[in-house]
Amino acid sequence: MSEVFGIPLPALLGQLMLGLVNGCFYAMLSLGLAIIFGMLNIINFAHGALYMMGAVFTWIALAQFGIGYWWSLLLVPLVIALFGVMVERTMLRRLYKLDNLYGLLLTFGIALVTEGLFRHRYGVSGLPYSIPEAFSGTFNLGFMFLPKYRAWVIAASLLTCFTTWFVVERTQLGAYLRAATENPQLVQTFGINVPAMITITYAVGVGLAGLAGVLAAPATQISPLMGTNLIIVVFAVVVIGGMGSILGSIVTGLGLGLIEGLTKVFYSQASNSVVFLIMALVLLVRPAGLFGRER
Length: 295
Prior knowledge:
- With 295 residues, the protein is mainly α.
- The protein has one domain.
- It has helices spanning 9-40, 47-65, 69-90, 100-122, 148-170, 172-182, 184-189, 194-216, 226-241, 246-266, 274-285; strands at residues 3-4, 7-8, 138-140, 145-147.
- The strands form two sheets. The chain has a two-stranded antiparallel ribbon. It has a two-stranded antiparallel sheet with strand order 3-4.
- The longest helix is centred in the N-terminal third of the chain and has 32 residues, at 9-40.
C-alpha cells in the first residue's frame, strides 16, 4: 500500500474528500458574506444564525408540514431571503450611511436574539433529519466509500457558488447590482430602483446562508447553536480571501477545507486553529486578503 510521509494514501485521500465537503459549506457561507459586505458594506454577523434557521426550518417543514427535502431545498432559502428583506427594510437601511460598526452590532444582536429564541423552543440536544432516500448508500472511489449525500453536497455547492459568481460578475443584472451599491445617485438617474437593488442583494446573500442550512440538515446535527461555531471560521475565510471578493470567498473556502482535512491527518491537534494561523500570516503579508483590493 502506497504511503505519503508515512500516512496510507487511502486515509489521506479520504480526509481530503471530507475536507472538500467542509470547504463547500465554508465557500457557500463566505460567499453570502462577501456579497453583503462587498455591495452593502455591512458585516453581517447574523449569517450563522440564518444558516441555522435554514436547517431548523428544513426540519420543521418535514416534521410539522410533511414537506420533503426537495421542496425544502427550494422553499426554505426563499423564506430566509424574505426574512432578510424584512430585516434590511426595517433596520439595516437606516445604517448604510453610518460606520460599519453599527451594522456589525445590529446583526450581532439579531444573531443573539434569533439563537436565543430557537434555543428556548428546541433546546440544544439536536434535531434529527434523515438523508433523502435518493442519496442513501455510497460511491466506491477505490480509496474510500463516499456517501452519496456528501457527493451531492459537493456538486450542489460548487454549482451554486460558481453560478452566483457568474451572475454577479458576468451578467447585466450583476452589473446593475454592483452599480447600485457603488454609485447609487448616478444609477438612480437611469431609472433604476436603487433601494430595490440593495434589498435584492441582501436577500440573495442571506438566501445562500439558508440554502447552506438546508444542505447541512441531513449531514450534521441540527441545533440552534450550529451556526455559532461555524461563523467564526467563515469570517476568517472571508478575511483571507479578501473582504467583498466573491471569487476569493469561493476559492479560499474550498482551499481551507482541504487544508483543514490535511491537517487532521498530519497533526490533528492543529486542525481547529490552522485556519486562524493562515489568516494571521495572510494579514501580515497582504492585509487586503488574497483576492482583495487595497482601499
